[in-house]
Design brief:
Blueprint (H helix, E strand, L loop, with lengths): L1 E4 L5 E5 L2 E2 L4 E2 L4 E7 L4 E6 L13 E6 L4 E7 L11 E3 L3 E6 L2 E6 L4 E7 L6 E6 L5 E5 L4 E5 L6 E6 L6 E6 L3 E6 L1 E3 L7 E11 L5 E9 L1 E7 L2 E6 L4 E6 L4 E6 L9 E3 L4 E6 L4 E6 L2
Parallel strand pairs: 1-25
Antiparallel strand pairs: 2-28, 3-4, 5-6, 6-7, 7-8, 9-10, 10-11, 11-12, 13-14, 14-15, 15-16, 17-18, 18-20, 19-20, 20-21, 22-23, 23-24, 24-25, 26-27, 27-28
Length: 288
């Protein structure tokens, strides 16, 4: 694997944690930004209470317009008892939100929780991806597991459990493969320190065969894809990375970030968005 530095020309807009109309804090440890094409809005999950994984019913999802202007600071979560919502994925109708105890299925138009899928076996549920058939896949960071919620039966099962997952964090769904951004080999259970940096992995949905795309790329957090390359945040090092899967090459796009989290890309707007835990901001990057 090769790591190189490159420079890119981008236009970056910072949106802070203040909401001028009401003078309230909007973002509190924002964890993922997700674009919803049908409503032309972004959704941003907030852990709440700082970088906290506590089951304290103090998390929520913020909604912004396509330019990142906050239109609903506490769109959902406060009344629904969300603890620390993290990874999300959107379909035309639903927003799926991973929380500490399971996954919320939210009807976007009605702004209501339609279903909650409890996952009591999860140790640290983190991100979610959806397949073409509608199956949901959820990463368990401390458990080295991937859970699956079947689209037809709605049953939750452990789809894959393996030390090779190396603290699976961000997920991205390809047609027949699940792409996993791993944090790395943990020094001890329930810690975030690593003895080995994380790999970018490809898992065949049918055979569950695990293949590395890039090794020891960083403490990988979130992942999205733009054209043929993966864009991934390295939380601990404060970097935005681009990984070419064919060349197995890692390029450092941005440095000096403050604990960047899960990114998402709007093809319609040609904007890459991701929050920062360390600044309570969401960055919207217009790509050339």
């Amino acid at each position: 694997m090769k790591t190189i530095f490159i420079s890119v020309f981008v236009f970056i807009i910072f949106f802070s944690s203040s909401f001028s109309q009401k003078k309230v804090q909007v973002y509190d440890a924002p964890d993922q930004a997700v674009w919803h094409e049908k409503s032309r809005t972004w959704f941003v999950s907030n852990l709440g209470g700082g970088i906290s994984l506590e089951k304290d019913a103090n998390g929520w999802v913020t909604r912004t317009d396509e330019f990142g202007n906050v239109i609903a600071p506490f769109w959902i979560g406060k009344e629904e008892g969300m603890h620390a919502p993290s990874g999300m994925v959107a379909t035309k109708k639903f927003l799926y939100v991973v929380d500490r105890e399971g996954v919320f299925e939210i009807n976007i138009k009605n702004e209501k929780v339609e279903t909650f899928y409890p996952i009591p076996e999860g140790e640290f549920l983190n991100d979610v991806a959806i397949s073409e058939s509608g199956d949901l896949y959820i990463s368990d960071f401390f458990g080295n597991k991937i859970f699956k919620i079947d689209a037809v039966t709605k049953k939750v099962n452990i789809w894959l459990e393996s030390d090779r997952l190396e603290a699976p964090d961000g997920l991205y769904m390809e047609k027949d493969k699940l792409i996993v951004a791993s944090w790395g080999v943990l020094l001890k259970p329930s810690s975030f320190e690593t003895s080995k940096l994380g790999d970018l992995l490809s898992i065949d949905l049918e055979t569950k065969n695990i293949q590395p795309i890039a090794t020891e790329a960083g403490n990988l957090e979130g992942i999205t894809k733009i054209k043929n390359n993966y864009y991934i945040t390295d939380w601990a090092a404060g970097k935005l990375l681009k990984i070419d899967p064919k060349k197995q090459q890692v390029e450092i796009i941005m440095t000096g970030l403050k604990y960047p989290t899960d990114p998402n890309y709007s093809k319609k707007l040609n904007i890459l968005a991701f929050p920062q835990h360390g600044t309570n901001q969401v960055l919207f990057i217009k790509l050339n």
